Hints:
- Helix 7 packs antiparallel against helix 11 (about 245-260), helix 7 runs antiparallel to helix 12 and helix 12 packs across helix 14 (about 305-320).
- The chain contains 14 helices and 7 strands.
- It has about 350 residues and is of the alpha+beta class.
Amino acid sequence: MSSTAHIPGPKGLPLSGNLLAFRKDPLGFLIKARQEYGDVAHIRFGPPRHVYLISDPEQIKEVLLTKQSAFRKAKGLQTAKAVVGEGILTSEGEKHMRQRRLLQPSFRKDRIGRYAEAMVDYGQKMLSSWKPGETRMITDDMMQLTLDIITHTMFGTSITNGVDDISHAIDVGMKYVTHKATSVIDIPESLPTKSNLEFKQAAATLDKVIFGIIEDRRKNPDASRGDLLSMLLAARDEEDGSGMSDRQVRDEVMTIFIAGHETTANTLSWTWYLLSRNPEAEKAFHEELDRVLNGRKPTYDDLEKLQYTQHVVSESMRLYPAAWAINREVQQEVEIGGNTYKPGDTLMMSQGA
Length: 353
């Protein structure tokens, strides 16, 4: 085993290290670092933060699977707790495993199939509003489409007010989290800066709206709703029969809402962009849709038949992944690929680079 002192990487600036170059073009910076320094590159984000970009598949497997107990989720996800709380994305250890047990039944194949009809209906509603020859901002359309779909699948038809408030508050919160996670100076939330005050207002809005929906649903349960919120409230741990507290439900609602909104919209937007740049692929895509659907609305059962369509989406996610990096912070000294990492070090793995 050897220390990390010998690991090469871009030099950077005296105080901020590589942080400014990374923030200017994150993926471009990581791609260049991988190309120039190989399987492991040392990146410095400010004086106290040492990050190591790991690009070797076997070393990545060690970090995420075989030696995962030596790590915790890194600063980005720790900071994200300010918005999403302790949901399945940010929780760890036994709490994470319990949340997985509680959530898994809500995502069985038969239940996912119920949401497909709503997805198709909202898609058709969007397309019917388009006019021949007009220019559309596809990113805005996809954001609105996925917002409509995740709102319906999460809350059913019970929510008529508050959706725009939730969407705006999440946008404010995630921008705050992103900036905080990549900042050299960690400004305490207690200081009354403009960004801190905006974030606190957004967080208060989220809690007010979502806790209000949860409270109303608990007072007026309806087993036939079939939306994700009903399933979360009805979920029981198979080991002890316990359910989720209001706080746990709120955190999972936030996690699923974010996963089903912005990231999905980005994937759709990149997919349409790539098809527009590849006429042969676009032609094959439409030919498969015409052959399989023959003019009718798609259903969940059609997915297995739409092989080329699945390949198109998979390639889009490979080229432009919505989540383009995974970070883990070392909790206990660990050896990965012959290098010994110390507590506080961060290992970054980028599927985008």
